[in-house]
Amino acid sequence: MISEWAYPRPEGLYIAPLDAYIDPVRPVARALITHGHADHARAGHGQVIATSQTLDIMGLRYGTDFTENAIALDYGQMRSEGAVQITMASAGHVLGSAQIVIDYQGKRLIAAGDYKRKYDPTVTPFEVVPCDVFITEATFGLPVFTHPDPMAEIEKLQNTRALFPHRSCFIGAYALGKAQRVISLLRLSGYDAPIYIHGALRALCDYYETQAVALGTLLPLPEKPRGGANKELAGQIIIGPPSAIGSPWANRLPDPIICFASGWMQVKARARQRSVEVPLILSDHADWTDILQTIEDVNPSEVWVTHGNEEALLYHLAKQGRDAKALAMVGFERAEGDEG
Amino acid sequence: MKAFATMLENLVFSPGRNAKLAHLVAWLRSNSGDSRGFGVAAVTGDLSLPHVKGKMIRDLAASASDETLFALSYDFVGDLAETVSLLWPQDHSHNDTDFALGDIVRQIQGATRKEAEAIMRFHLDRLDQTQRWALLKLATGGLRVGVSARLMRIALAQAFDQKVEDIEEIWPLLSPPYEPLFDWLEGRAMRPKSEGKAVFKPLMLANPLEEADRQKLALSDYQIEWKWDGARVQLVSAEEGVRLFSRSGDDISAAFPEMVIDPSFKGVLDGELLAGTPASLGSFNDLQQRLNRKKPSGKFITENPVFIRCYDILMQGGQDCRHLPLQQRRVMLETLMGTIDDERLDLSEMIAADRWEALDEMRTNCRANSLIEGVMLKQKSSTYQLGRIKGQWYKWKRNPFYADLVIMYAQRGHGKRSSKYSDFTFGAWQDTEDGRVIVPVGKAYSGFTDAELQKLDKFVRDHTIAKFGPVREVEQKLVIEAAFDSIHHSSRHKSGVAMRFPRFHAIRWDKDPEEADTLDSLRRLIS
Ligand SMILES: [Zn+2]
Ligand SMILES: [Zn+2]
Asked: Where do the domains of chain B lie, and which CATH numbers do they carry?
């Protein structure tokens, strides 16, 4: 029984034969980290095993001393620790994101972390790995979430911009992953003018560039003029963290078209709550259809659901005759729209 | 359908009037035919598809998805049509066919209820999600995209480079899909004629009087009248016939047949519909009884008379007087009222006040008459214009009443607020055989800030003791100070009282519910 050696503890999902936690929420002696988002990757663990890109990203966020002992394990590499094998498989969520594959006593557990299946030029696509227990996230675990084609969302944005050529366009996107994906999609759509980025995005965008993700010309915002907006930003695209929407920082943008790139934007009330003018339905998490498809592809004998809207997913999986249970994990009860 | 759905979605998210206008103009210019005409009607709320009602949408919902999944989804999305559109299983083999909105509307209009449902299913199978949403919204008439008929007319004027007044003038003569209008706008025909027709003229409205206004305004420049708490109406008597319109321009002649029989004048009057007779006023509740009956019997009419207290004259005979100053219109109105002997009409009296203090006192004392809401100040030189023109007409309401009441139930809001518990029922103490209990006395869903709403929502979630469908019963421990304009006896409410326009004034996190007001103290406020 896998649940005898892998189970939740207050610190996170505990893997007993490794004496390690997956994505622990507080400092532990030994952590396996799926990806660099703040709710999964925290500083202060004694040892961290993660992909080298995830380790780099943690270093950028927390400083290089975020752990005493960083061990890189990249996609496809395997590490043996006694009777346990650890393997990393790409999760398609953000740069460096991995599913952590644990083999022990002839059984295989996969903690997929956050993952997605939709097109994203900035990441290695999700890899299907068969297993016995598959731990899936359920951020968008409701059937209303069937995220549209990402390029159609970019087209929607460009149509609105064409109608308002004198307005600037601000896109709120999380600093790790979403921002770079939006920029890549814009480039793919043929938009090759410089894009202005908020200072909070700079380090990660530069890092993506070093990892062969071309983002084109990214400019810092010009100095803010006294009491007013930067006129030269009219007609330009500016990308920054969603928290900048409605902040004093945004006052420098001339008559901005406010856009927000997030899977939550599929529900109109959510977009209106945030006063978003162009909701860009772009998610780095699997939508309902893709969660179900992934479970079918991986075909585990048991599904553990965590991280989000478990209720609908558990109900549906039970109806399909799947063995599924909720993995109630402390610290992952998040407010909607948090980075994740 | 694609263009319409995209436009509709853009309107939903457009923050302001100008952005909405730009989307409307672009859509009006790039579309044509029935689809455009019906689209205009759908956006302004003038399109009704009588066969598509809530029941059909619920039937459709049942086949869109499993019941449990639907319930969980609906709870999250907060909008029935949107939930159905999101859950409807899309048949991707039908992609890339664009159906004309005009054709769909005509099909449904010409169908029986049963056929209409089949037509809806046919299209839901073939449209993409945004279009499904647009179709369901359009079919149920619940668009709520913040576009008034007025804004649509401005968009039409902009799109086709015409004067908005010229469109306003003929608007009441038109009906969806507005072929004669577009024929004229696109140069294929002359402008339709409005002479002799009994059509509604858009109303002039007042702005609330602010403290700062009082320091700027000279009272002597203003005509002052009571602000009557009835229903604003417009009585139109033309060659074609006589009609009574509500403030929004709905024809309410059928509900008030006695008002549209043979008046001895031709013209257009602006006034307040009140219950009773000029000599003996009825209550607002009496008027409500009449407003609720769409087709009253002769006996009911005799027992529940109404009349119009006239404020203004917009047309006399065939002459438009809206461009004349109020002072001059008032003389015309008084002259007209002097010549007609009709107990269905009387004249709104003017009030004399030479000092603000005196007027303030009158405003405060008018509480004695529950039918007076305050005073109106209208600039004597004002021409009659559409809407709320700055600096022309003001309303100065009397102060509201306040009471400390206890929150009992909460329900989720609509639209933007659908994820929050924002509709509240609150109650007051009453002594009963079972002891002292709190009984519901009113509902409110406004008057708090977004930050307060966050806290209220959290309070509801943390203190729920029972759920009844969408309604949550909460512990009786939070007191709010409610404001309301007036309070009346009501046989329709269990508490025996009904408040007018209750809203939040303050949330008293500090107050012990034991100290909330009693039903008896509320009853004493009834005038
Ligand atoms: Zn994540
Ligand atoms: Zn996450």
From this structure: 2-140 (1.10.3260.10), 204-397 (3.30.470.30), 401-523 (2.40.50.140)
